[in-house]
Structure prediction request, 535 residues.
Amino acid sequence: MDGLMMDFQLTLPHLLRRAETYFGNGEIVTRLPDKTFHRTTYADTMRRARQLAVALKELGLERGDRVATLCWNHHQHHEAYFGIPCGGFVLHTLNLRLHPNDLAYIANHAGDRAVIVDRSLLPLLEQFRDRTQIEHVFVVEDSYEELLAGADADDWVDPELDEREASAMCYTSGTTGLPKGVTYSHRSTVLHALGVAANNPLGLGVSVADPILPVVPMFHANAWGYPYIATMVGAKLVYPGLHLDPESLLDALAGEKVAWAAGVPTIWMGILQLLDANPGRWDLSAIKGMFVGGAAVPRAMIAAFEQRHGIPIVQGWGMTETSPVASTACLPHDLADVEDEERFDLLAFAGMPLPFVELRARVGDEEIPWDGEAMGELEVRGPWVASGYYDTPEQADRWTDDGWFKTGDIVSMHPRGYVQIKDRSKDVIKSGGEWISSVELENALMAHPAVAEAAVIAIPDDKWGERPLGCVVLKPGAAATADELREFLAPQFAKWWLPERFEFVDEIPKTSVGKFRKTALRDMFAQEPTPAQPA
Ligand code: ADP
Prediction:
């Protein structure tokens, strides 16, 4: 049809120019290794991003070439988030907590030609660089500064990118099989930022006046989009550097008057314990909410933060393959005013999809009923959902013939359409032909006053196939026996869901991004079938 809207490309150079033009004075704060705070502005950061784009081109890199980062969360990493894609290159964030063998595989598979690396991480790079095609290494605060100094920001020419060109890539951590690469486009990145910012589930939007602290590492699924979201709305950013312990984070949250912070549940469980032990020590009155996701968020934690500390938690669900945010907990209209107990139940769900994301759950070809009971595999589609893995054709069966991505998450659907994540398919416990949700048992255990952390895994069982085993970390100075924990669970679950066995451990092993590492627990406790016991 004639006279339609412009075909304006959704690319990151627009966000770069927008931040320079309108939010130049906005602050980007970084916690340095010595714990002092470094302060810079969007104007400076975006100028340096342009310098980086110019310098990479002058090095001879070509459009579409991959440039890796091996960095903590800081302002130079923010420059890379913009400078690399705005130069027409592809930002590849390497996960600094992976084994050098995995990093070698990932950097090689992605075809990285250059890397920006923190000085403290140089020894890690040296353990795998010779197994990659990396030609150029730039060390933050050292050769990286020389690289920028040799480039003039005014020489940056907008490469007039197509919105469907790649802007960034990220590998899934590969807990099963080899790591798989997800490639984001400029369009998907921009739409994801808009989608997350516009999604305002508890009436707690992100605005220019709301400082944001991403605890989530910048190598974990684009730091959930926060670098782009903050730049888009002009919000002050507070990057914690490598200081991710609860005390340092609380100091930063209070000192920088942070409104929004984002990270995986294990981070907030540590913070909750410290806050409970030191009431009133930190002034957190600026906090509007915390965005928590990447793993199931315990209901007890949501209730504790709100009731004891007045801090709302917004739960998000997503995957590297979904950019990552795809759904958030929410309380529309009639549900906003329900009693606390029901409200916390609802907030413990992964909620409803963001606009333009669609969800369905199926067993085989059949969609499961929305009755809160039936379980099926969650499938997702939308403009920021991957359509395939980078150069991994053997994984094509993760997508259905009609174009949905099979998440591998086992869910049930609340009658109103909210998703409840019950398990990852590899973690679900199959006992006597029925599924037991490890996530639900964990959530319930973590509501026990003596329990700091709990993970439930399947152990082989001669009679039932598999049975649940509870791995529990007790709070310092607290005590509870296996029998007490079983009694605590009993009113909430069918008898056959209750774990016969508990193991008390000092710590639940964590993955490279801070989730419970259930494979390690299975290695520790689930090797031998336990002898059948009388039912
Ligand atoms: P990995 O955990 O393999 O490093 P991702 O960060 O992409 O990779 O993890 C995605 C997975 O994390 C999802 O498939 C889901 O199992 C889990 N997950 C994410 N958010 C939630 C949530 N709110 N509740 C439960 N599980 C979640």
Observations:
- The domain at 427-525 is CATH 3.30.300.30 (GMP Synthetase; Chain A, domain 3).
- Residues 42-58 form the longest helix (17 residues).
- The CA atoms of residues 43 and 381 lie 36 Å apart.
